[in-house]
């Protein structure tokens, strides 16, 4: 993937600029990739603290595919689509996307290693094939790269904001207007580093939403991501006063006891990295979500 530095980024550190531009990538990962020579500036290796200049050409080189030290597990994943380059998987609620501290097994990656024949190596040994993530207790669709060329193309689409990502969420409160856009930067909460929050020094974040159904004390909404920041929908909806129902981290103290936020990634669209065909996939709300809605509809009759 190639990026050209614009005037507004001139003078900033290379690792800071790329952490803000490349979706779902940490500054530490960027620093490691710069040090290993997988990121170059104008064809040359530099240090992570290199101050970028206007028109610098940044190239993110492909890493060699790695044989990840992850135990494949037969988790019977719901593979919605698969070809030689990409796959689309419907992640169950409660499943972590990739191995991390406290989650060495039972992750989406463990299942992918068992069910798919190839996965890209760009994100390293613990995140093979993972182009973007959704939270543990969020269900829904994810795109997976089966080789590095496909991975790079899909990341470019995320950077260009051409990937369609639509979520269904149940939020506290009754939203009076039918449409809205939340444009507020998201970063680490200075008071609680495990949480994200709207902060002045955060990364740009934009969420569009429209109301699908109103209840006495809740609203069902569709949220459309323009950017993909960590916990973006959960943070943005809390910011405007309508936190997600069931959310233990960002929801109110008294919320629905349903085992996590009611949030489902139901629509995913992207351009196929090889054929150029525009593809869109939809996955209906899971039963745990529809049960809550059905109960609300009955109680309001």
TrEMBL record:
Keywords: Isomerase, RNA-binding. It comes from Jeotgalicoccus nanhaiensis. This is Pseudouridine synthase. Its EC number is 5.4.99.-. Signal peptide: none annotated. Belongs to the pseudouridine synthase RluA family. It catalyses: a uridine in RNA = a pseudouridine in RNA. The lineage of its organism: Bacteria, Bacillati, Bacillota, Bacilli, Bacillales. Pfam families: PseudoU_synth_2, S4. Residues 12-76 form the RNA-binding S4 domain. Responsible for synthesis of pseudouridine from uracil.
């Amino acid at each position: 993937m190639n990026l050209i530095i614009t005037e507004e980024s001139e003078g900033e550190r290379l690792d800071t600029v790329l952490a803000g531009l490349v979706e779902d990538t940490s500054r530490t990962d960027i620093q490691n990739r710069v040090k290993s020579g997988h990121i170059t500036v104008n064809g040359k290796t530099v240090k992570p603290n290199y101050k970028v200049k206007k028109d610098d050409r940044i190239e993110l080189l492909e890493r060699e595919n790695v044989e990840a030290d992850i135990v494949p597990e037969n988790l019977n994943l719901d593979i919605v689509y698969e070809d030689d380059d990409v796959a689309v998987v419907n992640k169950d609620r409660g499943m972590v996307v990739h191995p991390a501290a406290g989650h060495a097994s039972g992750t989406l990656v463990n299942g992918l290693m068992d069910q798919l024949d190839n996965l890209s190596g760009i994100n390293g040994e613990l995140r093979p094939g993972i182009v973007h993530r959704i939270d543990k207790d969020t269900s829904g669709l994810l795109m997976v790269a089966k080789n590095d060329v496909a991975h790079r193309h899909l990341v470019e689409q995320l950077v260009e904001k051409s990937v369609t990502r639509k979520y269904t969420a149940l939020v506290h409160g009754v939203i009076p207007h039918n449409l809205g856009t939340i444009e507020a930067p998201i970063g680490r909460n200075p008071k609680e580093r495990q949480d994200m929050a709207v902060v002045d020094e955060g990364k740009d974040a934009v969420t569009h939403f429209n109301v699908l159904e109103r209840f006495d004390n809740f609203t069902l909404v569709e949220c459309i991501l323009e950017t993909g920041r960590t916990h973006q929908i959960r943070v943005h909806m809390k910011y405007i006063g309508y936190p997600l129902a069931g959310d233990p981290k960002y929801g109110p103290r008294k919320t629905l006891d349903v085992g996590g936020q009611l949030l489902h990634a139901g629509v995913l669209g992207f351009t196929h990295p090889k054929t150029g065909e525009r593809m869109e996939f939809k996955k209906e709300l899971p039963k745990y979500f529809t049960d809550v809605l059905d109960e609300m509809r009955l109680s309001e009759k």
